[in-house]
Design brief:
The protein has 144 residues and is α+β, with helices and mostly antiparallel strands. It has one domain: Calycin beta-barrel core domain (Lipocalin, Beta Barrel), CATH 2.40.128.20. 18% of the residues lie in helices and 50% in strands. It contains 2 helices and 9 strands, in the order H-H-E-E-E-E-E-E-E-E-E. The protein has helices at residues 2-22, 30-34; strands spanning 37-48, 56-61, 67-70, 75-80, 83-92, 97-102, 106-115, 119-127, 135-143. The chain is elongated, with a radius of gyration of 24 Å. It starts with a helix and ends with a strand. The mean pLDDT is 81. It comes from Niastella vici. This is Lipocalin-like domain-containing protein. Keywords: Signal.
Length: 144
C-alpha cells in the first residue's frame, strides 16, 4: 500500500513536470528576431534641400530577391534590384538601433520602429550639412 501511494505520487509529479516544461514556449530575444532574412516590402527615400524648396520622395517596391539578411556574424547583406552590398553592423537592443558602416558613405544608423517575428520597420535620417536643414530620410518596411 505504501509503495503504491509513493508510486502514484511520483507519477503525478513527473506528469506535472513534463507538462510544465513541454508546454513552455521559448521567448525570442530582439536580437534573435532580427538575425534572419527579411524580404523587402517597400522603401521610401525623402530628401529635403533648403535651397531647392520642397522635399523629393522616391518609392521602391520590393521585388523577388530583394532582402536584408542580418547574420549571426554581425554582417548585414542588403540585396536590392540585383545589387548586393554587405555591411558590418552592431545591434543595440536597448536603443533599438542598427549601426552599420559603408566604405562609400561612412557610418549610418537605422532606428528600429517595429520588430516582431514577421515584421521589421527601419528608419534613418541623415543630415547633409551641419545646420541640419538639409537631410535624407529612409523608411524601410520588411517582412518574413
Amino acid at each position: 500500500m505504501q509503495y503504491s501511494r509513493t508510486f502514484i505520487t511520483l507519477c503525478v509529479v513527473a506528469t506535472f513536470l513534463a507538462c510544465a516544461f513541454s508546454c513552455k514556449k521559448d521567448k525570442k530575444t530582439k536580437s534573435d528576431q532580427l538575425k534572419q532574412k527579411w524580404d523587402l516590402v517597400i522603401k521610401y527615400d525623402t530628401t529635403y534641400y533648403s535651397v531647392f524648396g520642397p522635399s523629393d520622395t522616391s518609392e521602391y517596391v520590393g521585388k523577388p530577391g530583394d532582402y536584408i539578411n542580418f547574420g549571426h556574424d554581425d554582417t548585414a547583406t542588403f540585396s536590392q534590384n540585383g545589387r548586393i552590398l554587405k555591411y558590418a553592423y552592431v545591434f543595440n537592443d536597448s536603443a533599438m538601433t542598427v549601426q552599420g558602416y559603408n566604405f562609400n558613405i561612412g557610418n549610418f544608423n537605422y532606428k528600429i520602429l517595429t520588430l516582431t517575428d514577421d515584421k521589421l520597420e527601419l528608419y534613418q535620417i541623415f543630415y547633409l550639412n551641419s545646420r541640419h536643414d538639409e537631410w535624407t530620410k529612409t523608411h524601410i518596411y520588411l517582412k518574413r
